Amino acid sequence: MNGDASLEQLRREGRVVIVGASLAGLRAAETLREKGFAGSLTMIGDEPYEPYDRPPLSKQVLLGMAGADRTALPRRRALDATWRLGVPATGLDMAAGRVRLADGDEVPYDRLLIATGVRARPWPHAAEAELDGVFVLRTRDDGAALARRLAERPKRVLVIGAGFTGSEIASACRERGLAVTVAERAAAPLVGALGGVVGAVAAELQREHGVDLRCGVMVTALEGDATGRVRAAHLSDGSSVETDVVIVSLGATRNTEWLAGSGLGAGPRGIACDAGCRAFDIRGIVTDDIYVAGDVARSPHALFGYQFLSLEHWGNAVSQAETAAHNMLSASSDRLPHLWMPAFWSSQFGVNIKSVGVPTLGTEIVVSQGSLADRRFVGVYGYQGRVIGAVAFDHARWLPFYQELIETTVPFPPPFPTVDRRPEGRRPVDADFPDPSVPTHGPTVTLSGYSPADRRMTFTPAH
Amino acid sequence: MRLVVDLNRCQGYAQCAFLAPDVFAMHGEEGLLYTPEADEAQREKLAQAAAACPVQAILVDAVDPPAEAVSGER
């Protein structure tokens, strides 16, 4: 049994390299050791910090409850790894099995896991992005810098983009008593992820909490003063906002540039991999030694028509990392598919928002419990006659039930009477997602077509 | 001690907020906010909170914060 012997050798003395030292990279490394991997393990990360948790950066850290330098992730076990932190990977030689680093080193691997994640999309005008007072929020350094500035009590904060991160930032600022303007290109906050029906509720929440919410506008220019500090933003409706802190929350860009020319199926939509987390090359042939996990991956999901899904979700990073690590050490018949049910949460304006499934696939929504007017409800999304996703506002305990409906492909509208029979619960309405070909701050789930080698940015709607 | 709560699992039962109120607090009706790095003095309460969580969503460091991961040196 040649294959068994070589797997045994891999487990005993193989070299595993993980590029990306955040949540997915850490959990993959721990899983490898849990499964008995005794070879060498190298963790490569572009940030000079050990793995830390990002969700608190837009919540606890901005509220002043925790320092940005105090969100390091707890460890499940000791890793005995070699850490190369603060050194980005700059290239991949698939034939030789080596990762090139920015400092010129090359690290050889027998199995490679790519978990390089995403980065905040910067403000497109470089000179304006350089103004003092203009921020993005993705990293620990971003969080520390922004928290410091908010503690100086700016007169007004402008948030550009009302996706989840932008909305959470606005919420934290209001909670600290800061004046906040939010500028959103779409008709309402969160529409990219949850559609216009739920977006309208999010808009009411923001306004009720004192946010100066401007929808249907774009920020056309940021203006600095003589000392290079931002002082105003100009909007597409001709108005302007005087502000001393601007936070650009325009979604994320996948960290795949370092793979350009490597032959791996990597592009602006992420890195395509099969359901077992193995990366495709640009010919659409699956590799057997390169695996992908976390935000940078796009993988087919059986429950959602085998479309490639990119999930910028905390839970996905953990689950995909565990599956990838298992599969790296397993014979093909022992490998597991990554079939994690998409799920995410957000906390804003005192409301706990949670979701399961893929709302962005939905064309219709029905309120099955609670009421939009109370901001306490469950919305169920339907796609081609089946339940495809659900969102809960302060109704989290019900979500496992809806998850089961999605997993068992229950018809839509769901075949049970709505629990509390509010008028709006009785009939499905258009979920009102924006045209997906228009770039927005972004849904946290992106359907990215079928072709593993697809490097285009055009969207192929399934409906 | 570092900790993280899997907020996909969390359903807002608030057991942790009763058992370790210096680390966990409810925020709104069912949202949870927590301090990602707790003082050593909280160790006992934190262990109780993690054990009492009905959905087992709380992960606390299983090992002491490793020295291995703090520098870019090989």
UniProtKB/TrEMBL annotation, chain A:
**UniProt entry tagged with the keyword Endoplasmic reticulum:** no
Reductase C-terminal domain: which residues?
344-413
Q: Where is the composition biased (Basic and acidic residues)?
A: 419-430
Cofactor section: FAD
Q: Which UniProt keywords apply?
A: FAD, Flavoprotein, Oxidoreductase
What is one term from the GO cellular component aspect held by the record?
A: cytoplasm
Q: Where is this region: Disordered?
A: 416-453
Q: Which residues form the FAD/NAD(P)-binding domain?
A: 15-321
User: Which Gene3D superfamilies does the record associate with it?
Assistant: 3.30.390.30, FAD/NAD(P)-binding domain
Answer whether the UniProt record assigns the keyword Transmembrane helix to this protein: no
Molecular function terms, GO-annotated: oxidoreductase activity, acting on NAD(P)H
InterPro entries (UniProt xref): FAD-oxidoreductase/Apoptosis (IPR050446), FAD/NAD-bd_sf (IPR036188), FAD/NAD-binding_dom (IPR023753), FAD/NAD-linked_Rdtase_dimer_sf (IPR016156), Reductase_C (IPR028202)
Protein's recorded name: Pyridine nucleotide-disulfide oxidoreductase
Q: Which organism is it from?
A: Streptomyces aurantiogriseus
